[in-house]
Structures are given as C-alpha cells and as structure tokens.
Amino acid sequence: MELDPRDVITADPYDNITSDEDEESKIQRELEEMERRKKDLEKRLKLKRAHVKPTDLNLQLDVQVPSSPQKRSVSAIDVARKRREEAEAIKKRNLSLALNTAQKVNLNEARFAQLDGDDGKQSVNATTSYFLEKFQQSKKTEKLEIEAQETMLSARVHTFQGVDKEFQLEAVNELEQFSDLWISKRYIPKQYLEESLRDVKLLRLNKLFAKVRPPKFQEPQYSNWAVLAIISKKSEVKFTTSKNPQKFIRFTLTNFQQQLDLFVFGDAGVKRYYNLREGDIVAVLNPEILPWRPSGGSQQTTSIKSFNLKIAHKFKCILEIGKSRDLGYCPVTKKFSNEKCGSAINLARDRTCEYHRELQMRQNSSKRLDLNGGFALGAPTKVGTQPDLFREASGRFKQSARSLPRDQGKRFYTEPSWNSRHGQGGSSEENYGLKGKFFTSSNAAKAFFDDEFQNPDMLHNLDAKRRKLQDSKKSRQLDRKLKRLLSKDEDRATLDKNTAEMAALKRTTETALHTGLIQRLGFDPTHGRAASVMKKRDSERGSGANEDVALSQKENMVNELLRWKRDKCNLLPSETQLAHRKQHRREVWRETFGKKGTPVDSQPVDNDDSDDLEIV
Fold first, then answer.
1. What pLDDT shows up at residue 405?
2. So where are the chain's domains?
3. What are the φ and ψ backbone dihedral angles of 36, each rounded to 5 degrees?
4. Of 97, 136, 306, 411, which shows the fewest CB atoms inside 10 Å?
C-alpha cells in the first residue's frame, strides 16, 4: 500500500537515511533469531520434562554450597563503559519502537474513521487527542535525549590515567601509532600511553572537522574524546578585555593540512601549560567547542564561520606524547613586511608552504609562452570569418551594429559570418573590406559595435590600478625632493629663502670674497664655489659701477685695518712674564732633581732669552 502524501506520520522514513537503518534491520534479525531459539529451547524443555528420570538418593547426601562471591573493584573506566553501553541500548530500543509504531498505526486513518462514524463533537475530541499524542511523543523524545546526554556526561573524566608519573626521555625515529606522525623523541612509553588512552575516542584534526560541522558546531557525541595534533605556535600570555580580566594563552594545533587554535583560560591553566614547546605532539582530552564569528559583525547579521577549542578548568587534560620529527616553518620572506612567512610545513615533503609553492609555480609558468595563459594558442580571430554581432532595430528591417544610430536598436543578436552570407571563401582584403578587424576579446568587439557599452575589463581590479597610480605619483614627488637636496648646483641653506633674502645673502658672500678674508685662511671653506662666484663677479663689474665703488672702498678700509694691526699689535709675552716663567722653571728643577734644603739662588733675569716654554 502506497503512503498518502497528506498523511502525517510519527517518523519520516526519508529522514533516516543514515547507517541506523542497517542497524535496525540487524537488530530485527537478531530478535527473530532469538525468538526461534526460544521456541526451540521450550520444545526441548518440554521433552525433557516428559521423560523424568528417578532421582538417586545418594546424590542428596552431600550437599555442596558454593562459596560467597568475592568483591571485585570496579574502576571508573569500567563504569563509564557500562553506562555508555546502556545508553546506546536504550537509544536503539527507543528508535525501533518508534519505527514499529509508525509502521503499524496510521493516526490520520484512525481520525478519518472517527469522522465518518461519529458527529462533529467527536471529531473535535479526536483532533485534540491527536495533538496531545504528538505533544506527549515530542516530550518523551526530548526526555530520552536528555537522559542519554546525562548518561554520556556522567561517564566523562577530566584527566588522563597515570599522567603524574615521570618518564625517561627516549630518542626514537618511528611512526607514532595514535597520531600517525613521525616522532624523534618519545616522552611516554607505549604501554603507559595505551593505558592512558584506553576507552578514549581519538580524533585527529581531519576527523574533528568532520564531526564538528556547521551550522550548530555541536560537540562530538562521545563520553571521552581527545584531539591529537602538533603544537606549531604558542602566543604570549595575554589578558581578556572583559570587566574582570583573565589570563589566557593560545596554542596553534596542526597536522600539516589543517590548523586549529586552542585557548587556555585561567591562572592555574596558564601556569600548567605555559611550558609546552612548539613541535610537541599532544593529546587534548574533552576540550570545549568555542565557535567564533568575524570581528565587527553582530550575532543577528553575522553567521558562525568556524570554531576553536577551549580549556577553562584546572585539571591536567593535555598529554605530551613526543617531539615531531618533520615540523618546520616556511623560510620565504614576505615582500611588504620583510619578515619570514612562518607557516608550518612538513620538512619530509615540502620546502615552502602551499601558498608560496603556488606563487612560485605561477611565476615560473609566466616565463614560458606555452604555459602562459596570456598568449592564445592560435591566430587572432577575424570578424569576417566569425558570426557577426548585430543590434535589432525598432522596425522590421535589421541593420548592422556599425551603421545603426545610437538611439535605435533594442537588443543584440548574431548572424553567420560575412563570407558565409556572401558566398565567398577567400581571405583577401577585397572579400573582407572594412570587416578585417582584430579584437582581443568579445567585450572589445561589443565595445567597438556599441558606443554605450562599457567594457567590464576596465573596471576589473580598479582599486589596485588606482593604488599603482598613487604610488607612482608619490615616487615622482620623492625623486624631485631628493634631486633638489642632492643637487651640486644648489646650497641646502638657500632652499627656503625668498628672492630678497637670496639677494642679501649673495651680496654678503661677494663682499667677504672680495675683501680678501677668505684668501688669508689658507683653505677654501666653500669647496670650489668661491672661484665660480669670483669669475662671475669679475665678468659683471662693468654693469654696476656704483656697487663696485662701494666694494672697493670697503676693501681699502679692511686692508688698512689689517696693516695697522700687523705693525702696532705685538702678541708676544712681556719681559716680566718671561722672567717669572724662568724663575718658576728653576724652582721646579731644584725641587725635583736638586738636594733637599738647598736654597734657590736668585739669578738675574736674562732678557735676551726668548724661551717661553713652561715645564711642569
């Protein structure tokens, strides 16, 4: 019997298109097998009871009583396993009951039967009972889900077993069995590691991304699960921006294909895990899922993009397994920041990260014409040998887009090639006429035929083109400034002077040059510029007579002052100063080299001695 699409059934069979259907059929077969075995055993038991043997009295004399059962210690892992099995059995039983109910009872048919046989009052009651049944069923399903979640969480642990022991570091070169990564150092022996990870669902990063899916990003439905990855980066200790700041540290986990951030919050957690090293392979037990949105958007308008992991308790839930052998970092230097790329790579297979490998491949392919996409593998297309582009006029006739006025025409259409329509197969200029045009693209052809058409290729990457123009403009301005500063014909002190200041500075310089003061210094402080000024001044002497007279008068006055100074001024020390110096020199010699207590003879001062050196 086919199902009526208007029927409302308890469970839609199209929603259960997962592996649960196979499990249900398997359970059904097992139940049938158990029923068959039950009937067989009952039949055999009935036959046994029909043929009862007489009991032996001797066997009843020695009655043996079994010993009391010994109390066995039950670990937390066994309890967790038992609870998990019970939860799975309850879930399967509820699902099978729901399917059997949906297949046996059709609520819509029962309701229509009541409507056919009873009055309107009974139909109202039937509708109300149908709603109550649906409501009770939804409440029951929700209750079962809550119970299953509580059962799963009751078996959860927050730390690994046997992690408090200290082990000797072991140098190895092997493939780690749980993470499937090569290690060079092992921190925990294999037997202790297997004991710690017993009854824990291990998820690598690719499996974790498959389990935690958008849009809800729910936690994996396991009592105890752990993430296995390599620590590729570790940040410094930071504080949150909340009202009560809290310490946190971020670790970046990777498996060379995917990466995920792990945040550790709290003072105790930061102190415990701060010494984790980059390159260690770790197992993180039962972390929290922390979905994140792009910054700057509200929760209503911005959807969740991805997720991170979070640890906010004080238990030891990170297990260090070993040191990765193949972890490295991309050595390529970034063009703009002049820093290393630093992306995690697998040294056994790669030398750079995926981005720089693709960039290098594009650069290499652009140098080869056979691989460069900018060059077509053939001659340019001629319009005369390809379908022409036309624009339809408002009347019945059609005109070419070249000859149609701008305000006419409604839409574009194509026609066969010009040679096909005129029955010509030649390729000379006579056959093509004005149609022998070459176009680089279809947009260029449309722009040629239509004056109002705007080529979208011109607007492609417009921001980058505008930025290039601004950079070139700034570069030209900087070149002009540097040229002015480094020019040999201009003085740096005269860059910001106006015309009047420049004229006054020029007159002062020429006056100092022509008076002869600079010539008497013994060197040229202008580094050769004074010679050009002197030559220019000598060539222009005939134009300004009054100025030459003033300069000559000043030059004569300066020369007269210098001559008077040379004749009248004597800068040598006086005779009295020379006598005191000689007397002081004798006293110093007597105190240093003469006998003690010997008086210093006062000798007459020799005025002819011109030695003015002072010995100390």
1. 44
2. 1-35+75-155, 170-325, 383-459, 575-616
3. -65, -45
4. 411
